[in-house]
Structure formats: structure tokens, C-alpha cells
Amino acid sequence: MFDDYFQSVSAITPSDWESYYFESAGIDGYINAVNNISGICSDLDKGTINDYVHFRIIGQTWNGFINELNVIREIQNDFPNIDFRKANYELDESYFTDWEAYVNDMLLFGIQIKPITYKYMNTPYQMRAKENHEVQRELYKKEFGVPHYLFYYQDNRLYDKEYIINQINTSLALKIQVNR
After folding, report:
1. Who's near 144: CB < 8 A, 6+ residues apart?
2. Can you say whether the dihedral through the CA atoms of 94, 70, 151, 165 is positive or negative?
3. Residue 37 φ/ψ, nearest 5 degrees
4. How many CA atoms lie within 13 A of 106 on its CB side?
5. pLDDT by residue (tens digit) across 37-87?
6. Residue 87: which residues within 8 A CB-CB, separation 6 or more?
7. Per residue in 22-32, pLDDT tens?
8. Do the beta carbons of residue 150 and residue 112 sit within 8 Å?
9. What's the pLDDT at 171?
10. pLDDT at 177
């Protein structure tokens, strides 16, 4: 849903995101989440539960996207000639892809951006999700014939930046050789 919001406005704000969410999704799902948690955590008052649900749905989605933008801006500084484009919902869902990188409308690579905590997730459920994501990344590489990178952020910054820059430079050098 955030992808649709991002594509539909010229500037993003937290209050506009919240309004967009409730206009698009309605209030029912939100209320159901509050009620479900109330049934499980009967010792918490509705106000606390509402604040929690609001933070998880509205706040964390916003924070995650702002971190994505920060990572893209950071890498854009090192690759000013690359056009980074936000992937649409379908691409993200099918291929685990948040962004794509282009030069002159030629696709160079796909990107998924995750918090560093994703890297260390290890419950059985989380491991199955990560395996599925890896299948999606491999499908993207096969379908589009370009690399797909998994970027992590930590403390609002690109994690292991030099490694990422080296990966991108290597793939760009190979692409240049192939296209000669």
C-alpha cells in the first residue's frame, strides 16, 4: 500500500501517509487488530493497544520507507548517473524487489532493502520466509538477466557500504564488457 501512496503523491509526509492508509484500507482492519490484541492481552488498556497498533501499521511502515529512501540517497551519491526507481507492488511481491537501478532506461539491477535485523532472523518461520525471498531474488535475476542485491540498513545508514559499492562496480564493469 505504501508503494501506491508513494507513486500517487509528489511529496510524502507522515500525516498524508496516515490519511492515505485509512482512506485506502478503511478502519475495519485496524479496529480488528486492536480488538484481537485486546482479547489476547486483557491486562492492557485499549489506549495502549491502539497506540501499539498505530505504531506498527502507520509508524513502522513510514520509518521503514524513510530508511529505504535514506539508503537510496546514500548509494545515489556514489552512483550519480544511475536512476533509482521505486518498484511497484507487483514487482515487490513477486520478486522481493523494492527498487530498480537504470541507466538510459536500461535495467542494471534490482534491490531489496531490509533492516539489519532481517539478516539475523532465524526462527523456523523467519527462515522459511528468507528462503522464499531468495527464490524470488533468483527468479528476478533469471527473468530480467541482471543482478539483484540485498541492501541492509543499520542506524539509518547503509550497512557494509564498501561491499555494496564493490558489488555494483563489479556488475557494472561486467555489463560494460558484455555490451562492447
Report:
1. 107, 110
2. positive
3. -65, -35
4. 10
5. 988 988 888 899 999 989 988 898 888 889 999 999 999 999 999 999 999
6. 3, 95, 97, 98, 99, 100, 110
7. 888 888 888 88
8. yes
9. 81
10. 58
Task: Calculate the CA 105 to chain-centre distance.
Answer: 22
pLDDT level of residue 179 (50, 70, 90 thresholds): low
> Nearest CA to 113 among 64, 161, 160?
64
Q: What is the pLDDT of residues 78-127, one digit of tens each?
A: 999 999 999 988 999 999 999 999 999 999 999 999 999 999 999 999 99
Longest CA–CA span in the chain (Å) reads 67
44 vs 32: CA distance, rounded Å: 16
d(CA 130, CA 120): 10
Sheet bearing 99-103, strands edge to edge: 83-86, 99-103, 106-115, 148-154, 157-158
42 in Cβ contact with 101 (< 8 Å): no
Helix ranges, 45-160 (H):
46-54, 60-78, 89-95, 116-120, 124-144
Whether residue 110 contacts residue 140, with contact meaning beta carbons closer than 8 Å, is answered with yes
> Which amino acid makes up residue 36?
N
- Give the DSSP H or E segment for 32: helix 28-40
